[in-house]
Amino acid sequence: MHTRLTTRVLIGISSIAVALSVAPPAAAAPPARVAIIVPGQGQSPETYQLLAQALGIQGFQTRVLGLAGTDLIGDAHDIASTVDGIRGRQPGSALSLIGHSVGGLSSRYYLKVLGGTEHVDNYVAIGTPQYGVAPGCSGDIARQVCMGSKFMQTLNAGRDTPGPTRYYAIRNEREYSDGRLDGAQCRLSAIPGVPGLNGRFDHGAAPYNPLVWAAVSSSLSGGCPGAFVTDPDGTLRPESTLRSTFPN
Predict the structure, then answer these.
(1) CA 95 to CA 83: how far, in whole Å?
(2) How many CB atoms lie under 10 A from the CB of residue 235?
(3) 79 to 53, 60, 174: CA distances (angstroms)
(4) Could you read off the pLDDT of 112-160 as tens digits, one per residue?
(5) What is the pLDDT of residue 13?
(6) Which helix (H) or strand (E) holds 97?
(7) DSSP H or E stretch at residue 170
(8) Domains observed in the chain
(9) CA–CA–CA angle 78, 81, 82 (5° rounding)
(10) In the beta sheet, which residues pair with residue 174?
(11) 182 burial type by CB count under 10 A (0-12 exposed, 13-18 middle, 19+ buried)
């Protein structure tokens, strides 16, 4: 009797082991969606908290960097360190870069020059003067933003939108630059400013604009909420990307 019982137990254990060995694995958790926000020059991380919260509601993990925006190459290396850290902790995450103003330039330098395209799924530029602006030549902003600077020549040599990364451009109605890039890019229609907040010049007010939040969120969904364009490499010139009249 004892032998028969032991045999039945062993058979039962063997059956369970076989069942476990052939059972389908549990469904893997969907990859985390991480959005890194790179601020404009002189903007504190607090400026972007509303944007970060809006993205958080959409299920994004957000990280707002504390960069000064005065050394764009140095900032690009800081972005690289941040991305590497996230990739190390969350290797399967879907990662996006959102750059406001000159933050879009340091972000694109990371993608193009430092090889970041293999790590970043989406690049969203908000009010970024992609080919430079005249105030960068003499004003109190990063001199690398000056049209024709060595930084700009390096950034815009050849294809502006390399790699598998998807590129998006968002701008307010009042900007120095239209934010165009050659290559594949999704360009959104100009977004109205925030009434009563900064009615004469909406560049700095973009992080507070709910329409900008919605445009960023829509871009990160993987579609193109604007017009998808593929300008040939080398067809853009700095002058062609500037508004005919600067904002007051």
Answers:
(1) 8
(2) 10
(3) 21, 18, 28
(4) 999 999 999 999 999 999 999 887 787 666 789 999 999 999 999 999 9
(5) 36
(6) strand 94-100
(7) strand 166-170
(8) 31-235 (3.40.50.1820)
(9) 90
(10) none
(11) buried
